[in-house]
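Below is a filled-in request sheet from our internal design queue. Each sheet records the structural input a requester submitted and the sequence that came back. We keep these sheets so that new team members can see what a complete request looks like end to end.

REQUESTER: design group, bay 2
PRIORITY: normal
MODE: inverse folding
CHAIN LENGTH: 163
BACKBONE (tokenized):
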């Protein structure tokens, strides 16, 4: 059985493709890529069909991650096939939970930084879109830090333990 994870931000060109790429690399490194499917989407369709923001691509490549990506909008019908929907900030969390057709579906939505014990109460990954390259570097650091805890949770689920 394949465990499916979808990362969601606003336009699916900065934060969520970065999280998708980082987490896909973590999943592959853990030998789980045959059991875990990773993708991403945006709450809106403004950039649908476009590649990731060039600054996202640069940061990912500089750190050895795959930067191939095509933006798309999250479709509420996906809740039925997804096991976990990972929001990049509280606004995305609220939007996704409103889109969820059932309480069970809404329960699949979690904040990425909730998987990083060092994050404390600040669980948003700030949107780097309107800033400089340093915001993209900071975004990657937050994504990488949370990806370790997320991988542990997904591994526990895939291996039949409570996540």
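RETURNED SEQUENCE:
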């Amino acid at each position: 059985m394949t465990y499916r994870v979808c990362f969601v931000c606003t336009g699916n060109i900065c934060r969520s493709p970065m999280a998708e790429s980082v987490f896909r690399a973590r999943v592959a490194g853990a030998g789980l890529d045959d059991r875990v499917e990773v993708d991403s989407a945006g709450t809106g369709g403004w950039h649908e069909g476009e590649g990731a923001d060039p600054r996202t691509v640069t940061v990912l490549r500089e750190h050895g991650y795959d930067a191939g990506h095509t933006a798309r909008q999250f479709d509420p019908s996906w809740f039925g096939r997804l096991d976990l929907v990972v929001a990049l900030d509280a606004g995305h969390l609220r939007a996704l939970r409103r889109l969820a057709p059932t309480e069970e579906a809404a329960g699949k939505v979690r904040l990425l930084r909730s998987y990083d014990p060092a994050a404390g109460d600040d669980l948003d990954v700030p949107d780097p879109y309107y800033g400089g390259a340093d915001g993209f570097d900071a975004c990657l650091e937050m994504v990488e830090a949370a990806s370790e805890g997320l991988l542990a949770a997904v591994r526990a689920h895939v291996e039949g333990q409570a996540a």
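SHEET NOTES:
- Strands lie at 3-9, 36-42, 84-87, 109-111.
- The longest strand covers residues 3-9.
FILED BY: M.R.
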